[in-house]
Amino acid sequence: MAYDFSDVSVLIVEDNQPMVDLLKSLLEAYGITDVHSAKDGDAGFELFKKELPDLILSDWMMKPVDGISFTRRVRNDVSSPNKFVPVILMTGFSEKRRVMQARDAGVTEFLVKPFNARDLYRRIVQIIERPRQFVRSEDFFGPDRRRKRESSYTGPKRREEDDSNDSRAAKQTADKLK
User: Fold this and answer.
1) Is the Cα torsion angle 171, 130, 160, 80 positive or negative in sign?
2) Partner of 108 for a Cys bridge, out of 48, 86, 113, 171, CB 3.0 to 4.6 A?
3) Which CATH class name applies to 9-148+156-177?
4) What pTM, to 2 d.p., does this model score?
5) 105 and 72 in contact (C-beta within 8 Å)?
6) What does the alpha-carbon distance between residue 28 and residue 91 come to, in Å, rounded to a whole number?
7) Which residues contact 70 (CB under 8 A, 6 or more apart)?
């Protein structure tokens, strides 16, 4: 299914200017023209509060504030204007421990560099077509880390909202991306 992304805004948090230029070109090819960029997590968070993007693409390795710290701030900072905004974290590292660390920080999707246009598009479509409800616990807030739904499970539900749809804010964000 083709999507109309003409009303979607994206924030790119990336310290490598050629990568920013590449991402902007890809997003424009998808029909996304409202694109903002920042060089690190601190600048990215300030721009996030100002621009209120519908989607964030963030690199992992940046200084002084990396993509993991930035994502945690988006999800948990009291001044965050949208804790449910989808975050796609980009990195050249794909080891399982890194993927788990990103997942535990609250990223929505993980994109390994180098990637192609189809890989990025698939992550965006995944956010739209298969949004995950958000979970809050003592030490975590973000998209449900469970990707697979076991339909054969007959035991008690662990969360009250396990049978409900995504939270209203997360659903609205996904709907806007459609």
Assistant:
1) negative
2) 86
3) alpha beta
4) 0.81
5) yes
6) 21
7) 13, 40, 41, 44, 45, 58, 62
Residues 6+ apart with CB under 8 A from 85: 48, 53, 54, 55, 56, 74, 173
Q: Which amino acid is at 76?
A: N
- What proportion of the chain, given as a percentage, has pLDDT over 70? 82
Burial 104-131 (b: 16+ CB within 10 A, else e): ebbbbbbbeeeeeeeebeebbeebbeeb
Contacts of 50 (CB under 8 A, 6+ apart): none
How many other C-beta atoms lie within 10 A of the C-beta of residue 145? 12
- Six token digits for residue 163: 């049978």
Amino acid of residue 35: V
Which is higher by pLDDT, 165 or 178? 178
Domain boundaries, the chain: 9-148+156-177
Q: Are strands 55-59 and 9-13 parallel, antiparallel or unpaired?
A: parallel
CA distance 83 to 64: 22
The tens digit of pLDDT for each residue in 55-71 reads: 999 999 999 999 999 99
Dist CA 77 CA 140 (whole Å): 12
Residue 92 neighbours by CB distance under 10 Å: 11
